[in-house]
């Protein structure tokens, strides 16, 4: 199993309970979308899976090992095997796109090679190939602070394509892209995961994109898994219940006056 969680809980440092009783198994090559309303715990779950946050309860296995039983150095080596795609990639503004993409392999390179790469990009052709898959090769030598939000997201994704990790975790990877580009980018990510037989988990707000690009859908609500189903088997009622917003329905003066739950369109 790429991921194996049983009874996992997460409490943030301020005492906020973010995840409870999470049971989740993901095999190599599986493509899983994580959906759910704002504040449900999607980002917390992805950060936990990436070992950025330590579970407060339960058992968590990643790539065949229990990360929190490893030494800090071994956990750092484990992290280098995971590709993490952020909604807003934390790239230094003055960095060139080529350097940002090549940084995907820093965890695999020696210190000397990494330093040399900062002075002079060691594999511009490899970075260009990763960018070309996302229709962004013309930005190879641009500075990151000269890109749009959607272009920056694609640089973050190109970096992970270049990294060739054993697991891809993506937090709202296409939120700043137009629908056509978002669909294309998710298709590229899906192809990459299938071709290399690695698991891909992505949180998405766009339910139609989740259903179109991911065979398995995990719905998260109030820190718990509400459902975990093949996309084909998901009922509209389950989606409606996932996104039902009691606060909006009961707040005085809210435009949502009907007691009915929100209707989420399916593609
Ligand atoms: N660093 C943090 N410290 C304290 N509480 C946090 C932290 N990050 C998230 N939370 C809380 O944990 C809960 C889950 O938040 P999370 O960001 O995981 O939700 P989400 O489903 O990703 O939301 P969104 O779709 O709005 O991004 C929320 O109640 C949030 O306020």
Set out the fold topology.
Layout: E1 3-11, E2 17-26, E3 31-35, H1 42-49, E4 57-62, H2 72-79, E5 82-85, H3 97-102, H4 111-119, H5 124-132, H6 149-163, E6 167-171, H7 179-196, E7 199-203, H8 207-213, E8 216-221, E9 224-230, H9 236-243, H10 246-250
Parallel strand pairs: 3-7, 3-8, 5-6, 6-7
Antiparallel strand pairs: 1-2, 1-4, 8-9
Helix pairs in contact: 5-6
Bound molecules: adenosine-5'-triphosphate.
InterPro entries: AAA+_ATPase, ABC_transporter-like_ATP-bd, ABC_transporter-like_CS, MetN_ABC_transporter-like, P-loop_NTPase
Pfam family, one: ABC_tran
Domain ABC transporter: 3-247
Q: What is this entry, summarized?
A:
With 267 residues, this protein is of the alpha/beta class. Helix content is 35%, strand content 21%.
Write structural notes for this entry.
By secondary structure, this protein is α/β, with parallel strands linked by helices. Helix content is about 35%, strand content about 20%. The chain is built from 10 helices and 9 strands. Helix 5 (about 125-130) packs across helix 6 (about 150-165). The radius of gyration is 19 Å and the shape is globular. Mean pLDDT is about 90; it is low at about 255-265. The chain binds adenosine-5'-triphosphate. Adenosine-5'-triphosphate (ATP) binds near residues 12 and 41. It is a peripheral membrane protein.
């Amino acid at each position: 199993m790429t991921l194996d969680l049983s009874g996992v809980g997460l409490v943030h440092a301020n005492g906020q309970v973010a995840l409870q009783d999470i049971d989740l198994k993901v095999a190599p090559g599986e493509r899983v979308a994580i959906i759910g309303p704002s504040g449900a715990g999607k980002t917390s779950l992805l950060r936990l899976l990436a070992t950025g946050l330590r579970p407060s309860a339960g058992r968590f296995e990643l790539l065949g090992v229990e990360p929190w039983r490893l030494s800090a150095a071994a956990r750092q080596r484990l992290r280098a095997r995971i590709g993490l795609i952020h909604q807003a990639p934390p790239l230094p503004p003055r960095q060139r796109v080529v350097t940002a993409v090549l940084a995907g392999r820093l965890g695999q390179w020696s210190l000397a090679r990494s330093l040399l790469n900062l002075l002079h990009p060691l594999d511009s052709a490899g970075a260009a190939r990763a960018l070309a898959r996302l229709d962004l090769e013309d930005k190879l030598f641009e500075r990151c602070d000269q890109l749009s939000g959607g272009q920056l997201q694609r640089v973050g994704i190109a970096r992970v394509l270049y990294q060739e990790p054993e697991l891809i975790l993506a937090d709202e990877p296409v939120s700043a892209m137009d629908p056509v580009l978002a669909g294309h980018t998710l298709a590229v990510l899906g192809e990459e995961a299938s071709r290399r037989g690695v698991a891909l988990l992505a949180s998405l707000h766009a339910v139609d994109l989740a259903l179109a690009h991911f065979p398995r859908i995990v719905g998260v609500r109030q820190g718990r898994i509400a459902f975990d189903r093949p996309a084909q088997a998901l009922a509209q009622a389950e989606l409606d219940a996932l996104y039902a917003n009691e606060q909006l329905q009961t707040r005085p003066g809210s435009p949502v006056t009907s007691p009915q739950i929100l209707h989420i369109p399916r593609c």
